[in-house]
Amino acid sequence: MNHSIKLLIYSQDQHAILTTKVLNHVALPFFSTTISHIAVTQHINEHVSNTYQIEAAVLKCLKACENERVYVLEHLSGSLPGSSSLQWQSIHTMTALDQQDYDLIQQWIHDKEPSDIPWFQPGWRKNIEELLSNRLPQRVTNIEQIRSWERSTLLRLYAEDETYILKAVPPIFHHEPTICAYLSKSFPDSVPETVFADPSLNVFVMREVKGPLLGLTNQLEHWRQALLKLGKIQTGILNNIDQLTCPFRAIDYMMVDQLDHTIQRLFENETITKETLEILSENATKVRKIANKLKQSTIPLSIDHGDFFGGNILLQDEEAIIYDWSDCSLTHPFLSAVVFLQEVEDLFSKEAADSLLTDYLRLWRAYASMEQLKNEYQSIKYIAPAFGLMVYENIIFPTFRDNWDREIIIQGYIDSWVKEIDTSKEAHLHDA
Known about the structure:
The protein is an alpha+beta fold. It has 3 domains: 2-110, Nucleoside Triphosphate Pyrophosphohydrolase, CATH 3.90.79.10; 119-207, 2-Layer Sandwich (Phosphorylase Kinase, domain 1); 214-431, Aminoglycoside 3'-phosphotransferase, Chain: A, domain 2. It has helices spanning 42-52, 99-110, 124-132, 176-186, 220-236, 251-255, 259-268, 274-293, 335-347, 350-362, 370-396, 406-431, and strands at 2-11, 16-22, 25-27, 30-34, 55-64, 68-77, 86-90, 142-149, 152-158, 163-168, 194-198, 203-207, 302-304, 313-316, 319-322, 329-331. The strands form 4 sheets. Strands 1, 2, 3, 4, 5, 6 and 7 form a 7-stranded mixed β-sheet that branches. Strands 8-9-10-12-11 form a 5-stranded antiparallel β-sheet, with helices on one face. Helix 5 (220-236) packs parallel to helix 10 (350-362) and helix 7 (259-268) runs antiparallel to helix 8 (274-293). It is globular and about 75 Å long.
């Protein structure tokens, strides 16, 4: 499916917007391309470079609808071709500009960007380049933007014979640079190497991991290795838990007081239907009961990755490397395994998922018997969708303004919760 991409390219030096002549009026440049994730920027920057002979970087997506997106870009370098229909127009003296495009420019000018997402601001890229000039083992020769949205921005840094990935995150994920630096030193074979971190700027740089995503492979042993690596991180940090800077999100704390209110609010803002409201409200009592019971768990709190699945694990030289720790928290560690093992069941078989679960739970035998561990995992599996829903709806999404992915993430947790309810009912009927 093709999308129209409209480009609002701003030159900070000239305080001007790039425009193009279309018949008898002036408009913002645009092009058509295959639809991609809203944060992905490479194809946009490449189009600008190849078509307009200037270098630019996406600041943000300003508007997104069914068939069109509008992106704001910052002009970095280069001059327009002399014979081009393109021209820079002062932001204060726009003439003959298409009204719709004029309104978009005014929206961007007057809609002040939040200061806690600095990569949305013109000039941030230049500041980062200056920061990197003496912080990396090798001199950076080229920078390629990978993505930009509220959740993060990613840059690929090309050095003489190395490539690095720079990631900047908003305050809600301020823990990630410190966590990744700590994990890199403590578990160097399981996470990307962090070569530089500046927690005051919420920025860190990793040596790029090169290899396929685990989710694109079909070798079960790679999946087993990834899960066991995570488990060894979780058990390996228990004696140094005070060094973790990630948020504290104990299950009982998250569930007991907020669950009913959250479900009701989802109904009031038309995220869920009345039928779903009744299903979730009825089940909330059981979820709270499980959460309260888990207060007596003998399993120590540890790091939950928060988004552990085949798309956040790379295979480099046959070694699973776990990245993207933005959503991590200090909570029940078994939460990390739920989505991952469902993927294993979907890709391979239930028997394969059960085998990986058994291997993972063996890492926790110092704290409970295997029977107790399996029962506790089933409790965690049952309430995991509700937990994820609470984290995103009450903690993460309220800190953002655009929330382009809110609908798909919240609906995903709701669907998983309803599915878990249905599966539990079917199991009870079968046992009866």
